[in-house]
Amino acid sequence: MAKAADLDQALGNLFDAERRVRQLHADIADSDEATLLAAIGRALDKAVKEPSEDEATLRLERLAVLLGEMEGPRPVDLLIDILATEHPDARAVAGEQLEVLAYDRFKELAKGVERALKRLPVRSPALPELPYLLAEVPEPGVLKLLELFLVHEDPDATAAAIEVAVEIGDPAMAKHIERLIGDKRVVEMSDENDESAEVTIGELAEDALDIFAGAEGDDDGEAEGDDEPPPKKSK
Question: In sequence order, which residues have a C-beta less than 8 Å from that of residue 187 and are 6 or more positions away?
Fold first, then answer.
């Protein structure tokens, strides 16, 4: 067991290290933007190749925080690139930065999402995450972005868009989801009990349309009894 004096010293060292990190962060953030973005791009490439999970995560998390303080298209693209890595903790930090951006500068994020849909490969971890980042944003442009996910070739991205569309509850999305009935692409989803099962995009579309129809019935006062709509599946 550590002695009190040793703990006091360790805490002092921790505070000193944190102070140093904050100063370095501030110094780096004050650098020329173009030069800094180029350096961050190089550092990101090195981080994703880092064999140590802890080291890669440490680097990517710090890069995400730096990028979250910057404006323009390139920082958005780089944050989405971190969201596309295989490092969950780093992806969570990048997602948090993108969520803030979604509220503060939605147009920048929207353009970045549109670019991501074109440039990221199918099965990129970022594609099915992006719809969830949009779910709570009170912007009319969100529905337009979800429409792009609904026609994307990545099945997980399409499934996420269906779920978010149901969560938003705008009946205007029903006509876009209806086009997916019969889609045989398979995704793995989990229910409220965290039990996984494979379902087709077409089946998810049918469930979503049932929910929309039930909501319309409730609005019209036509719903009877205590029947509930089909349970919403989640990733």
Answer: 155, 156, 159, 198, 199, 200, 201, 204
Which of these, 149, 168, 171, 170, lies nearest to 160 by C-alpha position? 149
Report residue 158 as tokens. 């399409």
Mean residue pLDDT of the chain comes to 90
Question: Of 175, 108, 179, 94, nearest to 137 (Cα)?
Answer: 108
Torsion of CA 95, 97, 99, 104, to 10 degrees: -160
Cα 31 to Cα 36, 98, 168: the distances in Å are 6, 22, 41
Query: Could you read off the pLDDT of 117-165 as tens digits, one per residue?
Result: 999 999 999 999 999 999 989 898 999 999 999 999 999 999 999 999 9
pTM here is 0.86
Residue identified by tokens 């004050």 is 30
